[in-house]
Amino acid sequence: MMQANHNYSRISDSYLFSTIAQKIDTYTQLNPDKEIIRLGIGDVTQPLVPGIIQALHQAVDEQASTDTFRGYGPEGGYDFLREAIAQHDYQEVGLSMDSSEVFVSDGAKSDIANLQELFALDSIIAMGDPIYPVYIDSNVLTGRLGEWNEELGQWSELVYLESHAENHFRPALPTEKVDVIYLCYPNNPTGMTLTKDELQQWVDFALENESLILFDAAYEAYIQEDGIPHSIYECEGAERCAIEVRSFSKKAGFTGLRLGYSVVPKALTFQNMNLNQMWHRRQSTKFNGAPYIIQRAGWACYQEPARTQIEENISYYMENARMIKEGLKEVGATVYGGDNAPYIWLKTPVGVSSWEFFDQLLEKVQVVGTPGVGFGPSGEGYFRLTAFNTRDNTEKAVERLQKYYSE
Amino acid sequence: MMQANHNYSRISDSYLFSTIAQKIDTYTQLNPDKEIIRLGIGDVTQPLVPGIIQALHQAVDEQASTDTFRGYGPEGGYDFLREAIAQHDYQEVGLSMDSSEVFVSDGAKSDIANLQELFALDSIIAMGDPIYPVYIDSNVLTGRLGEWNEELGQWSELVYLESHAENHFRPALPTEKVDVIYLCYPNNPTGMTLTKDELQQWVDFALENESLILFDAAYEAYIQEDGIPHSIYECEGAERCAIEVRSFSKKAGFTGLRLGYSVVPKALTFQNMNLNQMWHRRQSTKFNGAPYIIQRAGWACYQEPARTQIEENISYYMENARMIKEGLKEVGATVYGGDNAPYIWLKTPVGVSSWEFFDQLLEKVQVVGTPGVGFGPSGEGYFRLTAFNTRDNTEKAVERLQKYYSE
Known about the structure:
The structure is a homodimer. By secondary structure, the first copy, chain A, is of the alpha/beta class. Chain A is 37% helix and 15% strand. In chain A, the strands form five sheets. The first copy, chain A, has a seven-stranded mixed β-sheet with strand order 2-10-9-8-7-3-6, sandwiched between helices. In chain A, helix 3 (79-90) packs parallel to helix 9 (292-300) and helix 10 runs parallel beside helix 12 (391-406). The N and C termini of chain A lie far apart (61 Å).
């Protein structure tokens, strides 16, 4: 008799963003005349840049002719893209990553969820808190993290690395034994960063304890200030303890094209098991590569004119971030992030929970954000706003938020 | 201390098709002047049809403009595609599948490998044998199927549903308890099919034993004869015991575009756990949908002119299949399949193993196929040839194969 995977019954039915979508639906049905501005889900709004569009058209034409048609590609990605990534994202900044350590995928979400297949089922996991819910949910569905404690809003066996204003969003090193550590910098959802020295402490801890770090660098392209690491491999010894995941989604507006990559260094070996070989085996067995035409678009990101056009889009979003942050400061709100990331992390007014704040903003000024507690217990009392809307909508949203605060 | 997933050490390093690729590489280096014809990997050779190319260009242009740009899409696929699939592949042939039972993905390989997350870790699995290696390897990497027995070429806890000439490629129903049954018809690698009555026996067995059937219908579009089910849902009660996986890869040449889908009926419930809801949760958590432009191409497959153009390509490949089968029969070889599938399943000469035959064909006539034993123990003594090459190469390959047999 077939037994279903009972880990699915351990987890609530709806994913954070589905819950938000439902709340918006309900509100819209009751208030069809109200125009909502969404600074919730971190989706881009600017279309693909001309250099990418051109590369896509060209790749489509290649698929129309027998001589240039491409069927199954290498599961880890075409060499032209793996080499472009290794060269431009690593070698050009003095890091020695090689193309066989780069694995192209259909996005950072899939990679973050699938990389857990590389470690043992009973691994002790530590995660930055608050954090992107996929890290937690994907582990629960596999049978990790213990039991859900509704009162604490915590999983019993997950080690939460608390980040909040009190510790300046720099979580303390774990005091217990942990096998795997999930870190994300620039951080989603707080928009905060670590310095290279601060990140080095995590690398040193992992090396000393033989832990693995899964480093999510999906927002690396938004770093504006010097001294903030773009890659964990800038830290000494990281190639012996860390996997890095990156995305084209936020960097180049590929949320609808689906492209990302993971770097799994050849030096990453635990008890004679080499993670580079294991990930190659995993991807070869369970994945068939990203589409050729999408990989060509990824390749074009590193060439002119797309390269400059992409930088202009990032500047556009970062100006939105600045406007939101300054606008909220003007009315006395406490805000974090937004300087090296497209996220603003807002402290909710005293006594107002994250979800209460969500409801109030929706009801009073029709602005949608994401409740901080949706990202974990340390997010309670915070709220995430994204810089990914258009300039016009961002301006309007700032006015509305200021109105909320002045009432 | 990080512990790697030790299931990775239970499985041989190289995937079947990688081993073949290495053998070809070695041969080519030693014989750079010899031209090899590949009837091995089941990859298409005809370019995408004009109707698909047009749809791709149009979708790319939509991504260039703010008004029509699409970022994150629904994880289970856009409604326009889910509805086209439900309508054309099911409702039009009298099956009541609804679009919310259709989940669009980046290909049948990913789905077949990922669907196992829906059932318990200690499930007893039965699989058609020979079979597409991904079914086995993906389960082993998760910790199922017991130990590998080198002598028998079998996994100790996998129930092999033997298919060979002696039982007319119709495996017997299991005599032991099984929880999950993997079936593939038209079959890869044998190219053989079941009648509707034969398939109904499997559905009846599954219903009686509360087993789940994973039905791989990736080659459905190649069925030429009447009376052969295109979908398992043609069988009475299948919506209560079966998931069906289909692909655009072989049907429409999407091996490089990456698009497939799984049908998970709402009626599919085991011990109060609903598999439709579970799969929705799985895909929402660990996947971000197929690219918008690729889904538009999938949609175009159901519209003219692409629909007719795709049928013409299938006829082209099926004529190749006929030529290979007839050509081999002429020289007295024993051949199966090829009538309703793009695969010809060839009995190797007496006393010649699958891999020996591979080596002989490569050495003597430079034709590459796939050793049957690579698909499982019942494949020993057989050899798979595909109809996916060009007409010219297929003609040349037939001549060379005939030469091999006449020497």
